[in-house]
Design a protein that fits this description.
Layout lengths: L1 H19 L2 E3 L5 H4 L7 E3 L15 H4 L4 H10 L4 H12 L7 H4 L2 H11 L8 H26 L15 H18 L4 H20 L5 H26 L21 E9 L4 E3 L12 E19 L2 E14 L5 E15 L4 E14 L2 E4 L4 E6 L1 E16 L2 E18 L2 E19 L1
Parallel strand pairs: 1-2
Antiparallel strand pairs: 3-5, 3-13, 4-5, 5-6, 6-7, 7-8, 8-11, 9-10, 10-12, 11-12, 12-13
Helix pairs in contact: 1-8, 4-11, 7-9, 8-9, 8-11, 9-10, 9-11, 10-11
Length: 436
């Protein structure tokens, strides 16, 4: 109901803006364009850029990208491991509940309108921006609600059957993409960084609140980006080069100039070998080894580069590892350290990192012939390194392939006895980054 009210207000504001708004046009706009309809007052924007000599700078080709495709694909494929990630929530954040995501999902859009109302001009005039946003909202609501009530996915808390995809996350990423287009591409990339960071936080809150599976959040993020891009592309078809105030900043796709990044990525962890439990720890007949299978890995990572070759950053990551004859082994890592970069050209970059931090490992239950053995997890130091290859798609959207290695000695406790297992993990993964 709230989204329908939001959409109604946005449409009404659009009609009002088109009917009565003061119009601000670039100084070089052809006279024929300024006489197509009567205006109450015509002013010239001091920030106007000479776009009259390069018509249709904002085009469908520029506004549409493939940035949303990996998120949607991962969301669709993620049903296979959604319950694994739910155990991480239970082990690490059990009982968490916060309603901040109900309100913060609109924050990037509120900032966009606040800057505009304050006279800080972005890409579009009021009328064109509201039309773009209205189309974006219509597309987003149609896709989200159409899929929700077709798939009938049960929420992880068991309340309702409308979990997939996440509407909150779709709204947040749509709003972040609008902020990115209006001010990130034309004024400062920090607007985009802030907007997408907030949107990623909304997705995390939806999982931590036990209201959505991770697959719901990934698909919602993709739908939000897709909806905003489609809304602006429709406006491009309608208005062409009219009613815009600023053009895109130069060299935004140059990763040699903009190596700093914020990313959301996923992958699968490989833990070679078997982990031996101390021989005198368990009674006869109990398993003496822990055999790992593949891990589901989801991470948020960000780094700020002082120059094209050196930066510092952080990585937060969750792991859910399948174990033979046991339930999932879940863990949460927070790490920081040094990042390196080697630009190959303007669009391609090789990266490396050296990270240190802490891992919190959840409990694990091992089934035996006679009983279930409960091993309690704990905190440990973790070391990590890795390499990456980045390709700038467009508008600071970067595809990033990773190959990471991590080592830790994970502590466990059985009764009064403590022991640790040396765990090596190799993680190939893929992510979508925003470079700045």
């Amino acid at each position: 109901m709230a989204k329908h009210l939001f959409l109604f207000v946005l449409l009404m504001a659009t009609l009002e803006a088109l009917a009565t708004d003061d119009v601000r046009v670039p100084a070089s706009l052809p006279v024929s364009c300024m006489c197509q309809r009567p205006y109450k007052r015509l002013t010239i924007s001091p920030d106007a850029v000479n776009i009259g000599q390069q018509k249709q700078y904002w085009t469908v080709k520029r506004d549409l990208s493939l940035a949303s495709v990996p998120y949607i694909a991962l969301g669709l494929a993620g049903h296979a491991f959604k319950k694994d990630v739910r155990k991480i929530n239970h082990d690490i954040n059990f009982g968490f509940h916060n309603k901040v995501d109900d309100y913060l999902q609109y924050a990037p859009l509120a900032l966009t309108y606040g800057l505009k109302a304050g006279g800080y001009e972005g890409r579009s005039q009021w009328g064109r921006m509201l039309v773009s946003n209205a189309f974006s909202a219509v597309i987003m609501c149609t896709l989200v609600n159409g899929i929700k009530y077709s798939t009938r996915e049960r929420r992880p808390d068991g309340t309702t059957a409308n979990s997939f995809p996440s509407g909150h996350t779709a709204t947040a990423f749509m709003a972040a993409t609008i902020l990115h287009k209006e001010y990130g591409l034309t004024r400062s990339l920090w607007y985009s960084v802030g907007g997408y960071a907030v949107a990623t936080g909304i997705g995390a809150f939806r999982v931590m609140n036990n209201r959505h599976w991770v697959s719901d959040v990934l698909a919602g993020a993709g739908i939000g980006i897709l909806s905003a891009e489609a809304g602006y592309a429709i406006s491009d078809l309608i208005f062409k080069d009219k009613y815009t105030l600023r053009r895109e900043m130069e060299d935004l796709n140059d990763v040699s100039e903009h190596p700093s990044f914020f990313s959301l990525q996923t992958g699968f962890g490989i833990m070679p070998g078997h982990k031996s439990i101390p021989a005198d720890l368990l009674a006869a007949g109990h398993p003496r080894t822990i055999t790992h299978k593949l891990s589901t890995v989801i991470a948020a990572e960000a780094a700020y580069f002082l120059n094209p070759h050196l930066g510092f950053g952080l990585r937060a990551r969750i792991n859910s590892t399948a174990v033979k004859n046991a339930d999932q082994l879940s863990s949460f890592d927070i790490m920081g350290g040094v990042y390196g970069g080697l630009p190959l050209n303007k669009r391609m970059n090789l990266g490396s990192k050296l990270l240190f931090g802490r891992r919190h490992c959840g409990d694990i239950s091992i089934a035996t012939l006679t009983e279930t053995v409960e091993l309690k997890g704990g905190n440990s130091f973790i070391f990590g390194t890795g390499f990456s290859f980045s390709y700038a798609l467009k508008h600071n959207i970067v595809w990033r392939a990773n190959l990471d290695y991590d080592f830790t000695r994970t502590p466990f406790q059985y009764g009064n006895r403590r022991f640790s297992l040396a765990i090596h993990q190799i993680t190939p993964g893929f992510g979508i980054c925003f470079s700045f």
